[in-house]
Fold these 2 entries.
Entry 1:
Amino acid sequence: MFFLKVCYKRDIIVAFIIILVGSLLGIGYNLIYSGGVKVFARYSHKEEILKKNEIDFINIHEIRIFFEESLAQFIDSRDEEEFKKGHLPGAINLPLHKFDEYFSRFAGKIEQDRFLIIYCDKGCDSKIFVADKLLTKGIRNKIFLMEDGWEELQPIESIFFSNE
């Protein structure tokens, strides 16, 4: 019985030392290297994509100007089913989970001299990753991401075709 108590105590001390050494190494690494250890890689990855590619967000009022002046092409990164329920006139559907399949089908329709505005549902991140994939495929258009989601574009008539 005494032997088991000594073994448990020793194991607890060893575990504590391992955790302490690991923590100190992590803190030291973060102090030495500016990037540090990426604890939340998914969120850091999104921010990296935006920063690296100089992708900006655009609001509904700016989108209206781009739409009315035909300055941009619109890319809808929602699923095909959602796209069929409604989308901006002339929008290209490039859902993230089927990007390669859809890109090969629509690549020739992307006009190099126009801006690209990518939208999806509110709170959706697929637009960020679709933008990154487009740039990886060699698309060099200036890309904007819609701040809000498709819900903000409805009804389309009142936002894009009103006579205000």
Entry 2:
Amino acid sequence: EQAARLEAQAVQLSEWNQKLEERVAGQVAELERVGHLKRFFSPQLAELIVSSGQEKLMESHRREITVVFCDLRKFTAFSETTEPEEVMRVLREYHEAVGPLIFRSEATLEHFAGDDLNDEGVWRDGELVVPMSRVTEDKWEETVTFRHPPTSPPDGDGQGVVHADFALAAHRAVVDVDPELGLVTVVRVDTAQDVGKALNPQSVVGQIEGGIMQGVGLAIMEELILDHGVIRNPNFTDYLLPTILDAPDVEALLIESEGSWGPFGAKGVGEPPTISSTAAVAAAIRNATGRAINRVPVRPQDIAL
């Protein structure tokens, strides 16, 4: 009788252990699901989804995004700072462009679906699903030829469609001039420039500021001195370049316009300020001194003598 009682207790203990293991496994799985969802949602929303048992409702939407994450560089950062409508527009354009290429290559994006990509391959839920050797074994190649809109030589009056596009910029310079020593400090340069479409406004402003700095150098510093065919200032000790200490304050107004044939309507933005900012500085010196400044760079002797 005692042996039977011990055997029954052993069976009951085994059942309790099994139930305990199942409960622990369930709790661990729930923690893993919450941790996974917290990568995409706030902690409160992730716990709400798991507690309702409806986390699979988000699965198809998440997969649609992560498929593209493996193929578009910096897409995650872009999607975190952009409106959802803009994200979906980019995805549609992406699939419209890549879809025909995938079809011709007899490939598929879904095969490489994952939520991370590194040198080892494509990962999903912490598991390597496609090694990099498999991802790269099929070569995708496409050749595209781009030509700008047609142009034609000028007629007898110098008129015609001789340019594919125009880049316009206006500059105003403010200078301090010491008329006795002939020294010039460029205090400020303001500009308004037609940039077509500013794809990255901060980068566009940086290009404009860099072009203005080149223009300032051409206006008051940079000059190759030739003496009977010999360059007398062949090094950067004597050939002066503007540094950050010479940089004027810059206010740039970006004017976006339609109709440019550049990528997404963008135009080149670095060259125009190099040209007209030089003229703006020279005009400001002429206006400040009353002297007929007709050369650049403007030297001290052009002002003081």
